Here is the input.
Amino acid sequence: MALCHNGHEAPIPTCGGGAGAKVEARPSASPKPRKTETRTWDGKGLEPCWHAEDKCGGSTGSCRVLRGCFSLSDCRCNDKTGNAVPICHKGEEVPISQKCKVAAAERMIKKAAEVARAQQRAENQRWKSSYKWTGGVAGPPPIYFSKPKWGCHYYQGNQDDAWCKNAQIIKDTEYGFFGEGQPLKSPCGQCDCCSRHIDVSAVYRFMNYQKPKNTLNFLIVGDWGGSGDKNPVSGSQAATAKGIDNVASVMGSEFVVGLGDNFYSRGLSKNNKWRLKVTFDDVYKSSSLQVPWYQIAGNHDWLDGSIQLQIEASKELPRWVLPAPHYSFVKTLPSGKTIKFVMFDHLQIAWNRLYTPLPHSEQKRSHLRDVEWPAKYQTGSEAWAWLDSELKNSKDDYLVLVDHQPVYTICSHSDSPGLQGIPEMMKKYRVTAFMSGHDHCVMTQTREGQTFILSGAASQPWNHGNFWAKVLHNGGKIDFGLHLDNKGQTRGSFASAEASDSGLQIRHHDQDGNVLHEMSTPLRPRK
Here is the structure.
C-alpha cells in the first residue's frame, strides 16, 4: 500500500517499527513546474497516485485498491482479495474497525455467491435443454371421504354371524355385521353380513386415522398466498384449503408450519394490508385451523422491500407467528420429548433487507410464548452465527430446519446456491429434516443420510420437473416427487407430520386431503 500526496506516491515507513524507530523527514523543496505530458494507465497492479488523484485527491487517511481510491470511513480499504487491511500514517498503523472487517467478509461472501449462481445457471441450462419427462402420470386421486358401497356377503364353509362380527378386514375386503342388535340398518339390503372391497394403501389407512395418544401432529403448508392483489385467493388455494381443513380435523393438528410466499405477488404493504384478512383469515377459517401458524417470509414477500407489516401482524392476529426473519420454537410431545424448529431466512441476508424485530415484551402473548428470536437486526454474518448456535446447542429429540427456498429440488426453480453450506451443517449437528417451499411442486428426497422435504403447491402449482435427472445424477434419492408433468388431476398439495417417541412421519396430501405419499420408514429421533 502507498499513500498519495500532492499527486505523488509518499513512501511509507514500516508500521510498528518498535522502540527507537525513526522517521527521517525530507527537506522541503520549492515546487517544480509539472510537465505537460499525457500519461495512461494500463489497468494492471495498484492504481498510480497520479491516476487516482482526480477521484479522491492525495488526502491523508485514504488507501488504494486495484481501481479507485476509497476512504476508511467507507470500510473499503481492501487488498486484492477483498480483505480489510490497515494503512500506515506517520509511521503508525491506522486500525480498521471490526465493522469494516465484517463488511469486507460479507462482500467476499456476496461475490462468491454471484459466481456460484452463474455456474449454477449454466449447469441448469444444460439439464433443462435435455429434459423430457418419461415417467408417466399420476392416476386420478381416490375419493377421500367416500368409501366403496357395501354388498351382500354370503357365508361359505364355517362362516356365520359370529364370524362376520369378528372378521373386520381380511386382505382387501372389509366385513360388517348389521343384523339383530346392531344400531345401523343394513346398507346392503336384506343381508345381515355385508362386505366391500377396500384400498389398504396409505390412503385408506389415513381415511380411518385414529390419533395415537403420544403423538404431536402438525401441518406443513408452502406457497399458499393467493395470486396477487387482483386475485387475492387463487382457485388452487381455495381448493387446497378444504383438504387442509379435512386433514387438520382428522389428525387434530396442533399448529401449522408455513413455508413462505405468504402474499403473492409482491408481499404485504400499507396499500394491501387488507389481504391479511382476505388471503389468510377468510381462507383458513375452519375451527381445526385456529392454531398457531409459524410463518417464514418468501422471495415474493420481500419483493417490495419489507416484511415489517407481517412482523407487526404477530401482535394483531392471535395465530400469526413471524416475530423476525430468523427465529426458533420448541414443541413438547406428551411423553416429554421435544422437537425444535429453526426458521431461517437466507434471502433476508442475500438481499440485504432491513427489518425491526418484535420487542421481546411481546412474548407475553400466548402464541409467542414458546418462540425465541434475536432482539436486534442481524447482519449476514450475525444471522449465520445465530443459525450455527441454534443448531449446535439443540439437545432436542428432533431438530427441523426451515427456509423458504430448497437446498435441492427436482423442479424448475433449481437448487439454491446461497444454501450450499446447509448440508454440512445438517450433518454436523444431526438435523432431522430440512423443509422448504418456493418451487411449486412436491418432493421428499434423501441424500447422504439427510432428508429434504419440499411442499410448495398450496396456491401456485405447478412447475416442471426439470431437475429430476440432475438429482439422481448427483446422488440424491427421490422417495416421492410430483410436478407439472406427472401430477395428473392433482390440483394442489400440502403435508402433514406426526411426531411420536419412535419417529417423525411425514405425509404429502392432495387438495382434498388424500394421502399422496407417506414415508416407508419414519425419521428416527436424534438420540
